[in-house]
Amino acid sequence: MEDPRVEALAEVLVEYSADVRPGQLIQIDGSPEGTPLLLKIYQEVLEHGAHPWLNISLQDTEEILYAYGDNAQLNYFPPCTKDAVEKIDAIICVRSAVNTKRFSNVDPVKQSQRAAVISSRHELSTKHSIRRVSTLYPTQALAQDADMSLCEFEKLVFKGCRIGGPEDPIAAWKAFSRKQRRLVDWLTGKEKIHVIAPDTDLTMSVKGRKWTNSDGHENLPDGEVSTGPVEDSVNGHIRFSRPTCFFGREVEDIRLWFEKGKVVRARAAKNESFLLEMMRTDDGASRIGEFAVGTNPDIQVFTKNILLDEKIEGTFHIALGRGFPTEGSKNKSAIHWDMICDLRQGGTIYVDDVLFSEDGEVVI
User: Fold this and answer.
1) According to the model, what pLDDT value does residue 229 have?
2) H or E stretch covering 53
């Protein structure tokens, strides 16, 4: 029996997020576990008069590459990929992991190498102005990470995507975008951010940087406002009490100390060696490329999935590594690692010494 929520999600992805037009070439990425959604997206692309290109990958191939690939193979970027990018108008990516811990024992040095290849792909798509949107197809593995049944996790994902409510989901996202635009307008032109929370006192400059309204065009679910801090301006310390997952590795209780924009000390209660190795990937990996505030009111619980967790209303996150040139960031890195700080149990964000958020609630 088909799930009408899957069909609705495909419609939002194609019509609203990717803004598919007749005659365009649309790449659809995913794995067999996401087949129901991939097929609906394929159909929607056809109904919009565009050309779908289905790119199915097997998740076990990554594990095999790490086990048997040499340095040249780990760093290889197929030339045909570069040729294809010049012709693609948009990429719709469906994530549907069946084992989120499959890289737990992979050498982090190899993962760092591979990160550079993945980063170069993103840079290439950005250079050619390719629209890119990522979403989730709920699986048992993702539900288990969230300590939920599959049914509970499905409800969370679709609700976060504005699917299944009384309002048309595309109309709901357009209204959300307008609401969030007011936040971006207020933040534009501001110069300083100061975050105070348990084991956290962090300052940074955002002078001259642009703010992004993340309103469902790059991720679904979505909901954040973000910018790229001035690279050498971050000072202070921060604690991330919630676990964060990166390259299939779960890292707990991360604590970072910054001086003049760079991490000078780092600790973690679990997988600290992985954290340190990732920050040695390149010079930009130990600097902040992004600061963002989560704004999605329909996502309220942590799931250990960054696509959901970074959108939780009442949180903020920073990303170590690559920043976005569209926001003015000059920080370059092979990694982009989001780490989330929950302010709902106590914490404030000041912008130019004006209270912006208190206990997770925006008050301006």
Assistant:
1) 97
2) strand 51-56
Total domains present in the chain: 2
Question: Does some domain include residue 174?
Answer: no
Give the pLDDT means over successive 10-residue stretches in the chain (364 positions): 92 97 96 96 98 92 88 84 82 92 83 76 69 95 95 97 93 96 96 97 98 96 97 97 88 96 97 94 95 96 94 96 94 94 95 96 91
Domain limit, last residue, from 136, 169, 202: 169
Nearest to 186 by CA among 104, 66, 293, 113: 293
- Is 175 within a domain? no
- Domain assignment of residue 347, yes or no: yes
* Residue 78 per-residue DSSP state: -
Q: At what angle do helices 4-11 and 169-187 cross, to 10 degrees?
A: 50
State the CATH number of the domain containing residue 113: 3.40.1830.10
pLDDT of residue 329: 96
Domain containing 104 equals 4-169
Residues making up the chain, counted from first to last? 364
Residues 117 and 310: their CA atoms lie apart, in Å, by 24
H or E segment and range at residue 245: strand 244-246
Measured distance CA(259)–CA(151) in Å, rounded: 45
Give the count of alpha carbons within 13 A of 295, CB side only: 25
CA 154 to chain centre: 19
> Are 147 and 192 members of one domain?
no
CA 283 → CA 114, 237, 263, 286, distances in Å? Answer: 16, 19, 10, 6
Angstrom distance (rounded) from CA 274 to CA 92: 30
